[in-house]
Amino acid sequence: MIRTLLLILLFCFSYATKAELNVMAINAEWLWTPHDNHIDGGKYNKGDMSPFAYHNELNFYASLVHKKSVQILAISEIENEIVADDLAKTFGPDWKAYFKQGRDTATGQDVAIISNLDYVKDSLTDFGFPYGQLSGFFDKKKRLSKVVGAQFWVKSGTKQHKVGVITAHFLSKRKDNIKKSQNRQRQSYALVKAMNDFLIDVDKLIVLGDFNDFIESETLSILMRAHNLHSSEIMMGKVNVNQSKKKRMWKIDHILYRNLRATNFLRIDLKKYSDHDAVYTSFSLSE
């Protein structure tokens, strides 16, 4: 009897102190709503989707989120706040979208964070769309045009952790050249400024999204070394730099973090819905 009680207590203690946080980043490749009678993107866009195709894609992402028990989703290449809200409604009543209108009027593309976690009041921000420079006062400036940050409460045992989440979408890698590569590096320095704001008062930080560069690039190195961020892909031993360039071409979406412990990393085929894979990470918050 005593042995049974001890086993029950041990199980309860283990359950109480174990907590997992599951996050995902998706590039939805031109997810445009047909319900707003407007097509965002003054220079580049693929037009509105049909209502059937639109709702099929929303449902596909919802099934993926539920299958992987995702609690935080960062999504890029959406048209506007309507899309973010529609995604949250499709995911379920406990989900909310966190959105700030971006500055990319050429494509109309935006980013959002969607979560079912408790939101830290007044933490939603675009950080003033910071700019970055490579070196010196006289270097050219490059702003982030698509960036959103929000903070959430995550419970682990008796502790409440405040987790800062930032997503951004960097300059496209298509038809890449030195100038575009350097501008992505400038955007990395801009994103470091956003991290600086959150690290004033958060326990833990997750930075994720479509950074349009490889994990070993200077673009990613700038992000990771500024505040000792880890890559969940590297920490889980999932990087294969010996793959051909063609096979690695779209491994440009990443999940970076600080003061957490990654326990899993996956790239997930989004089938016909996107030319990118989703990236997924589980984190342990065990005491």
Task: Describe the overall structure.
The chain has 7 helices and 14 strands. It is of the alpha+beta class. Helix 2 packs across helix 3 and helix 4 packs parallel to helix 5.
Overall mean confidence score, pLDDT: 91
What characteristic shape results from the CA principal axes?
globular
Helix fraction? 25-40%
Structural class: alpha+beta
Order of H and E elements: HEHEHEEEEEEEHEHEHHEEE
Q: Tally the helices.
A: 7
Poorly predicted ranges: 4-18
The biggest beta sheet is recorded as: 6 strands, mixed
- β-strand percent reads 25-35%
Radius of gyration: 19 Å
Placed side by side, the strands forming the largest sheet appear as 3-4-2-1-14-13
* Topology, number of strands: 14
Ends apart, CA distance between termini: 29 Å
Provide a concise account of the structure shown.
With 287 residues, the protein is α+β, with helices and mostly antiparallel strands.
List the helices and strands and how they pair.
Layout: H1 2-17, E1 20-31, H2 51-67, E2 72-78, H3 81-91, E3 96-99, E4 110-115, E5 118-119, E6 131-132, E7 142-143, E8 147-156, E9 159-168, H4 178-198, E10 204-210, H5 218-226, E11 230-231, H6 232-235, H7 245-248, E12 253-258, E13 261-269, E14 277-284
Parallel strand pairs: 1-2, 9-10
Antiparallel strand pairs: 1-14, 2-4, 3-4, 5-8, 6-7, 8-9, 10-12, 11-12, 13-14
Helix pairs in contact: 2-3, 4-5
